[in-house]
Amino acid sequence: MSTRTSMVREHCPPLELTPAQELALLCRVLHREGFDDHLAGHVTARQPDGTFLVNPWGLRWNELRASDVARMDADGNQIDGRWIITPAITLHVVLHRRRPDAGVVVHNHPRWATIWADARRVPAVYDQTGAMYTGDIALYDEYGGPVADESSSERAVTAIGSADVALLAHHGILVIGRDVRQAYIRSTVVEWRCRQAWHVEALGATEPMNETAVRSFGDRVDAVDDAFPGYFEAMSRFEIREDPSVLQ
User: How far is CA 105 from CA 8, 182, 208, in A?
Assistant: First the structure.
């Protein structure tokens, strides 16, 4: 680790949060980024004991509190929580089963990513912020309704392969991270990339950012163990100031 990186992390210490508080804050900060399609969307976080924390059905992401977070087993059976888990969690169950590297999985229908998913296109990178994720973006272009049954979920996960981000045609987006912080930065960066690409191409411009520059910059952000130290913490502190009950 470089001296500069060590200094950044020292001055941007992580918040002391429980896993449930982290998941509640992730939902809150992503809602503010546009992951706000009413009651839609699921976030799952793998726990050391093999269970998964999950946001429940019936609550908007911007009202979720730590005490509302539910828990399920590896087969999607609810084992804890005062709110029920959506039956549409099957895609997450299959994905976690097939992808041991998937510590946190985010699914929702944010405006700009869903536009590109509706168009069945993966947008180019046009600026530095959009370059903070340089991994593959898969396009799953088969839509037969919500991915809620085992067979359709298996097909979707097969199509996603090793990618950490997927656009689901006529549906929304799926983002995979090793932990809450990586899932957050990937989610925000891809939504930014989708929004900027729409606006840039609406102006008639089609010259993306230099691919070598994109890779060079993105690898310094996304490929490290602690991507962009302080990023999740800064946004979380704002949410805590706005509504301290998120931690309850």
Answer: 27, 10, 28
35 pairs with which residues across the strands?
Answer: none
CB count, 10 Å around CB of 82?
9
**CATH tag, 3-247:** 3.40.225.10
| pLDDT confidence band for 13 (50 / 70 / 90) | confident
Q: What is the per-residue pLDDT across 168-218, written as a single tens digit (0 to 9) for each?
A: 999 999 999 999 999 999 999 999 999 999 999 999 988 999 999 888 887
Q: Which two tokens stand for residue 62?
A: 């911007």
- Please tell me the predicted confidence (pLDDT) of residue 3: 46
> Quick check: pTM over 0.90?
yes
Q: Which of 159, 33, 139, 179 is nearest to 94 (CA)?
A: 159
Cα angle value 146/38/127 (rounded, 5°): 85
CA atoms in the 13 A half-sphere facing the CB of 143:
13
Question: How many angstroms from the chain centroid is the CA of residue 236?
Answer: 15
Q: How far is CA 129 from the centre of its chain?
A: 16
Q: How would you label 47-60 residue by residue, b for 16+ Cβ within 10 Å and e otherwise?
A: eeeebbbbbbbebb
From CA 224, how far away is CA 113, in angstroms rounded?
25
Give the DSSP letter string of 30-58: HHHTT---TT--EEEEE-TTS-EEEPPTT
Judged against a pLDDT cut of 60, whether residue 152 lies above it is answered with yes
Sheet of strand 172-177: strand arrangement: 78-80, 70-72, 52-54, 42-46, 104-108, 172-177, 165-168, 137-140
Q: How confident is the model at residue 238 (pLDDT cuts 50, 70, 90)?
A: very high
Amino acid at position 187, single letter: S
C-alpha–C-alpha distance, residues 40 and 7, integer Å: 39
